[in-house]
Every structure is written in structure tokens, then in C-alpha cells.
Amino acid sequence: MVTELVCIVCGRSYPPGDLQTCGVCGPQGILDVRHDYDAITPILTLEALGRRSPDHWRYRELLPIDPGATLPPLRVGWTPIYDAPRLAQNVGVRRLFLKDEGRNPTSSFKDRASSVGVLKAREFGYDTIACASTGNAASSLAGLAASIGMSSVIFVPQRAPEAKIAQLLVFGATVFRVAGTYEQAFELCRAACGHFGWYNRNSGTNPYLVEGKKTAGLEIAEQFAAGGPLGGELPDWVVVSVGDGCTIGGIGKGLHEFKRLKLVRTLPRLLGVQAEGASPIVWAFEAKTDLVPSGAETIADSIAVGTPRNWRRALAWVRASRGAMIAVPDPEILEAMRLTARLGGVFGEPAGVAGVAGLRRAVLQGLVPPDSSVLAVITGNGLKDIRSATEAAGRPHDIQPDLQQVEAALRS
Ligand SMILES: *Cc1c(COP(=O)(O)O)cnc(C)c1O
């Protein structure tokens, strides 16, 4: 039930259609999708939601899709939330929950956005959809496009991990590996979409994709509000890793919408986490200024973004929640990879666990009080980046098939 698209910079309103950004403000003018909440509130009750399928289409009235659209067959969303008491103790908070987004069909959070993206492309009459991505948006798009028989074209920067590229190729995407940065791949993709008439899934600017991402916020609210093992009370903080800023912006919007529907009364505060080598949104937050592009050096390839497109929306939601932003160095991200796996049982890629690293720092710095309950969104699966996993966890004992060597290795 979309009513209009509104520019987050100048406030101009556009009818919902095949638009990317505001015609007056240009690429800065990110468009926000607005809905008729008064019409939706009586429909989306907790009871009604409780009868719906366990995927993110349960929020279809809040998504920019045709009521009659044929949905992709893959199951996206409604990912599990786990209580992780030993990790909570290590990190220094009262309670810590992990939402495992690695359980989505292509193993990352990005499936929430891509599933909406392919439907918009089809609705607007495109047969090919393209994106530039550090990896996950691409593999996700390739998978979702394959699932509905659409072609995909992907531009990846040099640094994308091999496993993510393998994912693209196996789904049948046309893959261009660009000798350059993510920013250069992004610009090339935009130019190619204009030239060849492809639909642009770049989540930094496409207004509809954030709507898919917001379902994680809706889910967090519903999974807690519905009671059960999670206890009926929302966590005090939700921690999210930040690259372009769409994920945290989407989650902020989703949480807020759940309140708007009068299904919860209070909302968690948002903690956004960037890698120190790519932290322009943290700088802008602390300096209270506009964004200044930065370098993009970090092992967390999925958040290696020096020129984020959606920083305004990210900061707006962080501030509205009375939240905070923090940067973490790569060694702490690798440590969080070990800890989240060993103490929480969830294997995340570096960007997937950066939130846990940031939470640890935020507790040490007094930003997050130790008596807090916290949910960390683990945004992507660790098998996507084996090199970093090996760096974090070391190598096996190489031995002969000999019991004495087992003993010797255990002693060493
Ligand atoms: C894309 C991504 C992020 C960050 O999302 P943004 O919208 O770029 O801020 C975090 N973690 C993973 C695993 C991702 O793929």
C-alpha cells in the first residue's frame, strides 16, 4: 500500500514508479517509500501475523509489491534468534541475542532486498537486472534472479572473496570483475544500466530495496513482541554492521513501523558498527557534519565502503533511536569471528560479526551499559570468506594416522 516516494533531502513527493533518486537533488536525494499506515494498522495485528507463513512476505502490506505478484520460490527472512549467554558474558552485557541472517537462501541479509528488487524489475518490464557489489548483494541478486528466470549482470570490485564470485557464476550471472574499487564498479554499473536498459539493483540508491531490508526490523520486533522463549520484551539495543547504511536504515525503519502499527510501545536503540579502515559514517556521526568520503581498507569486504550512499538515512534512524556509532579495527573483527562461533555457535563472515566486535568496544567505552539486553544481527555466513576464517581460527594439526601423534599434538 505505497502512497508516495519522498526525497529525504528536499521533501519532494513522487508517485511510486520506476525511479531511483530525486530528480532535483540527484544521487544525494534518496527516496523514501511511504505507506498508508492507517489502512494497514487494522490488518496487521499480532494475531493475523501469527497465522502467516514464516518468511518476510508476511509483511506484504508494508512492502512495495503488487498484491497479486507471484513471489520468488526461495524462503527469505524469518531467520532465527538465539540466546547466547556465554557470548553475553564475554562481551560484558546482561543478555545477548544473535539473529542469524546467514540462514537466508544465499546466506546473507541481502536476500531481503534482492527478493523485492527482482519483483520490481519484473513489474517495471525489465528482463535483466544488474548491480555492483562487494559480494553479497551480487550473489543474492544472482540467486533470486535465477529463481524467477531473470538474467543478472554483476560488477564486482577486485577484492571480492572467491566464494562469493563462485556463487555468482554458479547461479548463471554475467560477472564483470572490475580492476578498481567498489565505488568505480558502482559508477560503471550505473552507466551500463542506462546504456543497455537494465534494472539497477544498487541498494545504495534504489528506493524499494530498503523496504526489503526493513523486514529484519519488523521481524525483530515481532519475534520479541510475540513472547515465547524470547520473553515478550524487546532488547535495549540492536547492533548492526554498516557499509552503505541501508541495512541499519532499513532495520530502523522496520522497528519504527512496528511501533507505528501499535504492536509495541518502546523501541531498541541502534548501535551502528563500521570497520576502522572504512568508517566515514562514524566520523559524520561524531562530528555532526555531512559525510566526507574515506578510504575503504578492511578485511570485512561487505562493509568496505568509502563513499556510502545511504548515510543520511542511517544517521537519521540511529539518532532517532538515541543510538550510537562506533568503529572497530580488523583484529577485533577477527576475534569476534572466533568468539561468536565458539561461544554462540554462529559462524559469521567478518562483516557479519563486526557488530559483536563493536558491541564489545561500546561496553568498554561505557556507551552500552553492562545491564543491557542486546540483539546483534549476524548479517552474513562465514563460509563466504574462508580466507578470513582461516586467519581468525588457524590451521589443523597435520599428523600421520597414529595415536601417538594425536597425543603429542594434544600436549603441544
Ligand atoms: C551489505 C552488508 C552489510 C552492510 O549493509 P549496508 O546496507 O551496506 O550498510 C553488512 N554485512 C553484510 C554481511 C553485508 O553483506
> Beta-strand level of the residues, as a percent range?
15-25%
Q: Any guess at the CATH architecture of the domain at 81-107 and 208-393?
A: 3-Layer(aba) Sandwich
Give the low-pLDDT segments: none
- Helical content (DSSP H or I, runs of 4+): 25-40%
Rg estimate, integer Å: 21 Å
Helices, by number, come to 15
State the CATH class of the domain at 81-107 and 208-393.
Alpha Beta
Instruction: Calculate the mean pLDDT score and round it.
Output: 94
The order of strands across the largest sheet is 4-5-13-10-11-12
Distance between the termini: 64 Å
Q: Which word captures the global form?
A: globular
Can you write the helix and strand succession as a string?
EEEHHEHEHEHEHEHEHEHEHHEHHEHH
Number of strands: 13
Structural class label? alpha/beta
What is the third-level CATH name, the topology of the domain at 81-107 and 208-393?
Rossmann fold
What compounds are bound to the protein? pyridoxal-5'-phosphate
Major sheet size, sense and barrel closure: 6 strands, mixed
Brief synopsis:
The protein has 412 residues and is of the alpha/beta class. Helices cover 40% and strands 16% of the residues.
How do the helices and strands line up, and which of them pair or pack?
Elements: E1 2-7, E2 13-14, E3 31-35, H1 37-40, H2 46-50, E4 81-83, H3 85-91, E5 95-100, H4 111-123, E6 128-132, H5 136-148, E7 151-157, H6 162-170, E8 174-178, H7 182-196, E9 199-200, H8 209-225, E10 237-241, H9 246-260, E11 269-275, H10 280-287, H11 311-320, E12 324-328, H12 330-344, H13 350-364, E13 373-378, H14 386-393, H15 403-411
Parallel strand pairs: 5-13, 6-7, 6-9, 7-8, 10-11, 10-13, 11-12
Antiparallel strand pairs: 1-2, 1-3, 4-5
Helix pairs in contact: 3-12, 4-5, 4-8, 5-6, 8-9, 9-11, 12-13, 12-14
